[in-house]
Amino acid sequence: MLEYILKRFGQSFLVLFIMSILVFVGVNLVGDPVEMLINPEADQAEVERVIRELGLDKPVSEQYWYFLTNALKGDLGSSFIYNEPALKLILQRMPATLELALFSLFISLIIAIPLGIYAGYKPDSKASKTIMAGSILGFSMPTFWVGIIFIMFFAVYLGWLPSTGRGEIGYFFGIESSLFTLNGLSHVFLPALNLALFKISSVIRLTRAGTREIILQDYITFARAKGISEKRIVLVHILKNILIPIVTVIGLEFGSLIAFSTVTETVFAWPGMGKLIIDSIYNLDRPVIVAYLMIIVTFFVFLNLAVDILYTFLDPRVRLKGAHQ
Amino acid sequence: MSSRDQNFKNFWRDFSVNKIAVFAFFVFLLILFVAIFAPLVSPTDPYDLNSVSIMNSRMPPMSEDFAGNLYVLGTDGAGRDMLSAIFYGLRVSLGVGVLSGIFALIIGSMFGISAAFFRGKYETIIMRIVDIQLSFPSILVALIILAAFGKGVEKTIIALILVQWAYYARTARASALVEINKEYIDSARCLAFSNTRIMFKHILPNCLAPLIVVGTLQTAHAISLEATLSFLGLGLPITEPSLGLLIGNGFEYMYSGDFWISIFPGIALLITVASINLVGDHLRDMFNPRLQ
Asked: Nearest-CA distance from A292 to chain B in Å?
């Protein structure tokens, strides 16, 4: 197993290395690096200073080395707009995105798991068919459009919930988050529900498929033969077994929540990384774009690595496959 | 009756079991018709500057202007008839979605089938690239491409192709691996047919069923993704007003309560994507041997 984990580690670094080359090529060879990395409003002396500083007058291989070592030192350039290091800007906005993604993951699980189990437990009932039709609808609904409808209905028409911003931020054990204040919660609710919608559909389908498989197993028949109540069978026997695949998928789903939060954050003006990247693309703030891409790719590579390693603990077949390769 | 007619009859018999899917299929045909014949079925030409008047801007649904023209779904901020704008928008959205789907299908199945055919290092490299790409969410891949190259029609289509090809490659390889071990491929090899001929005339037609399933679901996904990217201002330019851009236009007027400008294009998008998804979902169940 150790061999498998080490191998996956090696692969992850290879992917990161390739991505860094792609980003470097994208910035330096496809476009004009001088135009891309230097503020368009800079004067000639400033342009020459930055060219020297970034090593743009050196050969390509040396430039890549420069880019890579700077990136490893955490220096991914400075934003034109905010005049601050790009890395710092992104890290400042990361907590807002993480809290939005976590809260919407929570919402999607508490809604989707009971519905999915029900739909798998009684697959032919009217309610189950409605749930499944609803999940296709949820799949098909464009996230940004649902966000707009939420704002129109809950914020503009009913006036119940605020539609923009993060609200008051509370502190708890040194972690700052708007989940700790009532005002903050009222701000996070609509965007989180919006972001959760797509996940709700996919988790319902996953839970239903798992339930339908488990319900045919011998141990469920055996539990019934022992006279265990149906309630206990659902809550203990089915739920417990269904959680294994769901928990592993959550890791990957969490990553896609962070990616899709760019859309939700833009609609609800949520001050997270996603809104920052969209704003930076509008403003052609290229150092921030490059930094965001590098950070998000690193994040995903390690998230996938973590999920794969988790799999080896949960599913022995993966372990064996790794050992035989 | 030829065997092709017979095949179609069998297919339709299986397909029509699910009434919802049949209904969705006809809804999709209707949408396709409206999209193709948009200039003929639209009440007005929303992009003809002579007929659009700013005096008519932001009129609620079912209102009439001074000339007595009825605007069933109201007008947008520039005074364009929403219904006509939606018909034209469907055209752009479906066009971009279907076009990128076809290209992705061709590229993806080419790589997938050749990977299954040649095996070895070539297969490993292709499938590793597929695995890595599929571990990133589609919107992130599209965002990376459009952030690097800027917006535009071709760039959006390229981004959508790059997002989708991996799904087709994976499906094509999986079903080609099954087909390759069958006897008709052995006999084709004995007849010394060229590799290309075996791959595309013998293997490909037998892998089409799963590819069509992936194709329908992916096209729905591509249409939705294009709308999202265009809404964010990263996809299509304003000269190609897709449904996503129409919704984005309405976003400005949201706080003033002019709901129709972004709600109706959204409903059109939802019906389009949902009808394709319902058909695709049923096709997947039909072709799934475990459920038969």
From this structure: 10
Question: Residue range A48-56: average pLDDT?
Answer: 72
In a mutational test of the B interface, the residue from A145, A260, A262, A311 whose CB has the highest number of chain B CBs within 10 Å is A145
Q: How many CA atoms lie within 13 A of A174 on its CB side?
A: 0
3-class secondary structure, A175: strand
Look at B112 and B9; give whichever has higher pLDDT: B112
Residues of B in contact with A139 (CB under 8 A): 277
Judge: B255–A277 Cβ closer than 8 Å, yes or no: no
Distance from CA of A172 to the nearest CA of B (A): 32
CA torsion sign, A35 to A36 to A41 to A46? negative
DSSP state of B198: I
Amino acid at position A259, single letter: A
Residue A270 CA to residue A166 CA, distance in Å, equals 6
Q: What does the pLDDT average to over B41-45?
A: 75
The model's pLDDT over B173-189, given as tens digits with 9 standing for 90+, comes to 999 998 888 888 889 88
Interstrand relation of B70-71 and B63-64 (parallel, antiparallel or unpaired): antiparallel
Contact A92, A292 (CB under 8 A): no
State whether B147 and A281 contact (CB < 8 Å). yes
- Asked whether residue A91 carries a pLDDT value surpassing 50, the answer given is yes
The token pair that represents A127 in the structure block: 């309610």
What sign has the CA pseudo-torsion A55, A56, A58, A61?
positive
Q: What ipTM was assigned to the predicted interfaces of this complex?
A: 0.81
Residues A184/A253, Cβ–Cβ less than 8 Å: no
Strand locations in chain B (E): 63-64, 70-71
Nearest to A256 among B137, B257, B266 (CB): B137
> Which of A82, A100, A81, A75 shows the shortest CA–CA distance to A294?
A75
Give the H or E element holding residue B292: none
Residues near B82 by Cβ (< 8 Å), separated by ≥ 6? Answer: B61, B71, B73, B74, B75, B76, B260, B261, B264, B265
Higher pLDDT: A321 or B188? It is B188
CA distance B156 to B248: 17
pTM score = 0.84
* Shortest alpha-carbon distance between residue B273 and chain A (Å): 5
Give the residue from B285, B107, B122 showing the smallest Cα distance to B213.
Answer: B285
